DNA sequence: CGCAAAATTGATGCCAGTCAAATCATGTGG
DNA sequence: CCACATGATTTGACTGGCATCAATTTTGCG
């Protein structure tokens, strides 16, 4: 039952694999569509163009920068890291994508993916051909609306970390953000795995790895979290949210 | 003819105001659509739901945070600043929007605008009811595609300044970015007005106003720009692009 | 002209990055 | 099963870039 507590591959869900429809109605993207008001019959159309991918293992890529863009994908299980590599060879982590979240949206404006996407643990995906889903979206107002909203939401998210926040605020916002996103998918909001390395967190938050270490340690000393290796427990949510508030609320 | 050199209200364009169609075919959003492959007959449908707004004067708001979301808008002339105000009352500048650019896209995911939009100088707008344009997009694949691409592009843009860049890199990227966007609309890329205050630039780049002042002065001492009040001339584009490259290319 | 806001310039301090080294975790081969 | 190698993480000491504070100059506008 660790699948409930942690964003890992959940065997009980995989068991549905024989029945594509049942399977898909638990799939991340379908859930998103449903929660945004799409009706069931529209979902059936969606299922006809979905392609299930995985399991991918840690380190395997979903797509790479420069690959021809043809599809977006919804994460069904696991964590996907998106990143780009600048001309100096330095990596820039763009985001971490949890179950229920969609990757590849920033590729729509262009023929090629503008970044890499790699699995951090065991990952299951639903893949949607973008040309096909565009055609379908013209027939299904609900789907079109869902895509518009997904895209719009990403614009807001991308701006969150752009501010001149302190290391403490960044880390708090990162943890609270993770917690909320996991909670939205039915995982425990208070105890979860940091599926990414400290260096990835640091890179994503634009901090030095050493700073990530120090801030986490101080958060623990101050009783806000308990952290052991990559396992994290939030022990004083209110205070953490206080720190994160400036970033998350805006 | 200063309307060619600077992003100001251009009387020669306004003269077309009597003929809505001719007027609209020079309107920013239409130009965007055309440049992305929409045909002329589709444009006529667009014109039927466009509403021309303006002139707005410096300090007047296009929309405010919390206003019910009903429309996106294309800037036709002038500069629009988008910003939010956090709980501590501090302003956060999200972006500057030049002629040809679309504002309000980040409001699609939600019933209300998540930020304020204010005119920095004399501004003309084309306003598009979003419900109406959504319906139209279902009939016009080109329009749907255009909207998808506009949204997708904004996701990428929002990430640009998120990195841990130096003050010099940020300023260079800001100036080169402005220059390119102005050039794309037919304005001079080498000599233009900074329509926003230094404090706005600083806020947008997440620097102190004092730092903006010092960096601009140093850029001038090093011969890369000539700056007089709010007028700016780029005198060594290559070097400036070298500095900005890390940010703009990624 | 005269005031208020904006912009510049100088002096100082702090947060977080950098460098360096120790510690820990994990996997491998003997 | 243990010794060792390797990479990740932590910890400490030091440094630097940018913010902050303070004072002055310039601009915009009635």
TrEMBL record, chains A, B:
The keyword Transcription regulation applies. Pfam families: cNMP_binding (PF00027), HTH_Crp_2 (PF13545). PROSITE patterns: CNMP_BINDING_3, HTH_CRP_2. Residues 165-238 form the HTH crp-type domain. InterPro entries: cNMP-bd_dom, cNMP-bd_dom_sf, Env_Response_Regulators, HTH_CRP, RmlC-like_jellyroll, WH-like_DNA-bd_sf, WH_DNA-bd_sf. It comes from the Bacteria. It is found in: Cytoplasm. Keywords: Activator, Allosteric enzyme, c-di-GMP, DNA-binding, Repressor, Transcription, Transcription regulation, Virulence. Transmembrane segments: none annotated. The keyword DNA-binding applies. Residues 34-108 form the Cyclic nucleotide-binding domain. Homodimer. This is CRP-like protein Clp. It comes from Cognatiluteimonas sedimenti. The lineage of its organism: Bacteria, Pseudomonadati, Pseudomonadota, Gammaproteobacteria, Lysobacterales.
């Amino acid at each position: 039952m660790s699948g409930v507590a942690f964003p890992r591959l959940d065997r009980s869900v995989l068991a549905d694999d024989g029945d594509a429809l049942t399977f898909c109605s638990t799939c991340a993207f379908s859930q998103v569509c449903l929660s945004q008001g799409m009706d069931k019959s529209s979902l059936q159309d969606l299922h006809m163009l979905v392609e299930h991918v995985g399991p991918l293992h840690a380190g395997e890529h979903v797509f790479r920068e420069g690959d021809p863009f043809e599809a977006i994908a919804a994460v069904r299980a696991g964590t996907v890291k998106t990143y780009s590599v600048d001309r100096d060879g330095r990596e820039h982590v763009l985001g971490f994508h949890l179950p229920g979240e969609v990757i590849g949206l920033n590729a729509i404006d262009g023929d090629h993916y503008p970044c890499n996407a790699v699995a951090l643990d065991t990952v299951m995906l639903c893949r949607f051909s973008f040309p096909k889903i565009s055609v379908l979206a013209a027939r299904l107002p609900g789907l079109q609306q869902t895509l518009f909203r997904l895209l719009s939401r990403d614009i807001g998210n991308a701006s969150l970390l752009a501010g001149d926040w302190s290391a403490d605020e960044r880390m708090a916002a990162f943890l609270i953000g993770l917690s909320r996103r996991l909670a939205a998918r039915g995982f425990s909001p208070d105890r979860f795995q940091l599926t990414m390395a400290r260096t990835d967190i640091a890179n994503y938050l634009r901090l030095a790895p050493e700073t990530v270490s120090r801030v986490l340690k101080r958060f623990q000393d101050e009783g806000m979290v308990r952290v052991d290796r990559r396992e994290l427990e939030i022990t004083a949510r209110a205070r953490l949210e206080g720190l994160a508030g400036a970033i998350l609320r805006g």
